[in-house]
Amino acid sequence: MPSTRPNQLFRNLNAKIASIPMILTAVVVFLGGTVWTVVYSFTDSKLLPRMRWVGLDQYERLWNTSRWLISIENLLIFGILVLIFSLVIGFVLAALLDQKIRFEDTFRTIFLYPFALSFIVTGLVWQWLLNPDFGVQSVIRSLGFENFNFDPLYNADIVIYGILIAALWQGTGLVMVLMLAGLRGIDEDIWKAARVDGIPMWKTYLFIVIPMMRPIFITTLVIITTGIVKVYDLVVAQTGGGPGIASEVPAKYVYDMMFLSQNLGQGFAASTIMLLTVMIVVIPWAYLEFGGKGKRHG
């Protein structure tokens, strides 16, 4: 038994040695940068970092800033709707493709293709499509519906929903592929047993298949949520945060504070809040996926 551990330690030694530079880079750049950001969020750094402590002043100022509060409100609306619609649409599309339809590969490619585009490209495409002068509104009006109005990007009350449309168009394909992989992992005998018992298909999905796909749903949820928290490119490309600050999001607030307003301390405080949000999502997932399994095996 004592000789087993040294053998395991030297197993795949070349691969472990090759991964050292990557691990060091991750530790120095990610962990070091994270600690540096959190530390300087307690200072009054402006154009350049400076170690003049102000305690929680930056955080108090942050939560008393209407622009930041609007960005949080927008992120909550955008995030909740993206989670709901992307999971529902992605699962429905996956369920349809799982029926072994003809040209499945073609449909899968079409649905997944938008995810290959950058958010900047997606934002510019949908900025054009939603433009009232030559986009969807113009096309439908040319068909005779003169009173049709659809200009979400120019209406402060609904601009966040215009960004939502673009986000769903780009991200739903990835959710579909993840769900399809989960569905393909379901034992065929389960479907056969459900048919023999006369269980309707929707009940089979709702009470049997979906609970079995719990790990897929959790992983997908984490991927979507982390993407929501750091959404930036899409907003900049579509609206630039406008009209006014109606489509402001936290990531854009951080960028503007650090590079336009030259207020590093405020930008660091906002980015620390974003980091905490991601950790609130990732840590429970990591515990469920790894910690829980270890205890069960133990």
Short description:
With 298 residues, the protein is mainly α.
CATH class: Mainly Alpha
Mean pLDDT: 88
First and last CA, distance:
19 Å
Give the low-confidence spans: none
Radius of gyration: 24 Å
Helix content: over 70%
Membrane topology: Multi-pass membrane protein
Main location: membrane
Organism: Chelativorans salis
InterPro entries: ABC_transporter_permease, MetI-like, MetI-like_sf
Protein architecture, described:
The protein is 73% helix and 0% strand. With 298 residues, the protein is mostly helical. It has one domain (64-297): Orthogonal Bundle (MetI-like fold), CATH 1.10.3720.10. The radius of gyration is 24 Å and the shape is globular. The model has no long low-confidence stretch (mean pLDDT 88).
Jot down its keywords.
mainly alpha, 0% strand, 298 residues, MetI-like fold
Question: How do the helices and strands line up, and which of them pair or pack?
Answer:
Blueprint: H1 4-9, H2 13-40, H3 57-63, H4 66-97, H5 104-116, H6 119-129, H7 136-142, H8 159-184, H9 188-196, H10 201-212, H11 214-229, H12 233-238, H13 250-260, H14 264-297
